[in-house]
């Protein structure tokens, strides 16, 4: 297994800062003024100002601020509160993405629920794509924030995972997480395929209720 490189290693990269969409930059400014706010450019993204020192914004797929604050497993990652903040300042929440620096499906809330969603038939768009394949083999599950042109392979940091397809059907037990995947890039925060997004949201709500 490969160790994940935190996105904080990209901090200060000028090329990354210049590519942040204007709408997202405006949304970050808007989010600082409120306890919680929704990102209008993303289907499921919310900013929650956390009671931390120094102050941080927690990014989440849930509209309610987490009861456990920065310690919640439902927080995707963190951004510092400040005027000159962009997505290159994003820091992953290890409790959401991976444990101990390694991306293992059972140790990742996101990846374990994606695999569970595939097993329960929640991945409608993934299943449709699989049924259209002309041969058996592994199929990539791409992040919707930066979908490649038809017939092209997504960038490694946009491949959430891969699953084996046989006779047009996915085999959920073969799902493998992509070690190079990043929950946040210059193109924005994770946008899960339709069906899997609702499954993950439901799972996150259950986790939040138990915290």
Fold and architecture overview:
This protein is an alpha+beta fold. Helices cover 26% and strands 23% of the residues. It folds into two domains: 88 residues, no CATH class; 106 residues, no CATH class. A five-stranded antiparallel beta sheet has the order 1-2-3-4-5. A hairpin with a 2-residue loop joins strand 7 and strand 8. Helix 4 crosses helix 6. The chain is globular and about 55 Å long. It starts with 13 loop residues before the first helix and ends with a helix. The N terminus is likely disordered.
Strand content: 15-25%
Largest sheet: 5 strands, antiparallel
Low-confidence stretches: 1-23, 99-103
Q: Would you list the SSEs in sequence order as H and E?
A: HHEEEEEHHHEEEEEH
Please identify the structural class as seen in this structure.
Answer: alpha+beta
Distance between the termini: 30 Å
Cα-atom radius of gyration: 17 Å
Oligomer: single chain
Shape: globular
Number of strands: 10
Number of helices: 6
Percent helix = 25-40%
Overall average residue pLDDT = 83
> How many structural domains can be distinguished in the coordinates?
2
Strand order across the largest sheet = 1-2-3-4-5
């Amino acid at each position: 297994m490969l160790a994940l490189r935190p996105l904080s290693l990209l901090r200060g990269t000028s090329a990354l800062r210049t590519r942040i969409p204007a709408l997202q930059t405006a949304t970050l400014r808007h989010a600082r003024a409120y306890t919680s706010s929704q990102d209008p450019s993303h289907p499921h993204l919310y900013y929650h100002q956390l009671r931390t020192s120094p102050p941080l914004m927690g990014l989440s797929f849930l509209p309610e601020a987490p009861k456990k604050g920065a310690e919640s497993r439902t927080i995707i990652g963190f951004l510092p509160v400040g005027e000159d903040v962009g997505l290159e300042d994003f820091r992953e929440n290890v409790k959401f993405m991976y444990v101990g620096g390694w991306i293992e499906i059972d140790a990742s809330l996101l990846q374990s629920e994606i695999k569970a969603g595939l097993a329960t038939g929640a991945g409608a768009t993934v299943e449709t794509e699989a049924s259209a394949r002309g041969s058996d083999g592994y199929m990539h599950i791409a992040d919707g924030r930066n979908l490649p042109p038809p017939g092209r392979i997504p960038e490694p940091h946009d491949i959430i995972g891969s699953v084996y397809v046989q006779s047009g059907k996915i085999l959920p037990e073969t799902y493998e997480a992509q070690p190079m995947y990043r929950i946040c890039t210059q193109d924005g925060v994770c946008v899960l395929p339709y069906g899997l997004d609702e499954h993950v949201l439901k799972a996150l709500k259950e986790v939040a209720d138990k915290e």
